[in-house]
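Hello,

Our lab assistant flagged a job as stuck in the queue for most of the afternoon. It eventually completed. Since we weren't sure the result was trustworthy after the delay, we are filing this so someone can double-check. Below is the sequence as submitted and the structure that was eventually returned. Let us know if re-running is recommended.
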Amino acid sequence: MQKFTVHEGIAVPLDSANIDTDQIIPKQFLLAVDRKGFGKHLFHDARYLDDAEMKPNPEFNLNKPAYQGATILVARNNFGNGSSREHAPWALMDFGFRAVIAPSFASIFNHNSLGNGLLNVVLTEAEVDSIFKVLTQKPGTKIEISLIEMTVKCEDLCFKFELDEFHRHCLLEGLDNIALTLQHQAEIKAYEEKRPAFASFGTAL
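-- returned structure --
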């Protein structure tokens, strides 16, 4: 998993609350389990004018020139609600996003995101409002997020945010569930070597 320490990137605003996982990555595109290729269908229904030709909708912010190359998404309350599909953070990350800023996130989406290296930053509604004003007045503005200092900086704005120490450690070190397990490889090997043969999986009785 890619480490997240300090990231600066163009921020794109999506001024909507309750953006669910089917809006993030519609169900008809959940055809793979390897995490790649979902970015082209991110926000598909809003991003394209039709399914056949996938002509970009010029009114959708992700398609506007000022936001090209955006790596930070700013949204409203309850981002990521709906089904528990892990494809939602996969699609966001495959598109290029490293972080999402919102006043609140659906719990399962938040868990899936953190487990894949996508940082969800919770700020107050007033703080998010202030960021929206900057991004609306100055499209293409960059935001800096420091997981070291636990700060979000946007122009003259600077806000503190919180994250539990376990997930903060995992993001800082780039540790997903597999990497966490492999940190105990020696103990696992020692345990397996002590197990009697009849306790091993696949042993005939």
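-- support follow-up --
The delay was a queue issue, not a problem with the job. The result is valid. The chain is about 30% helix and 15% strand. The longest strand covers residues 6-13.
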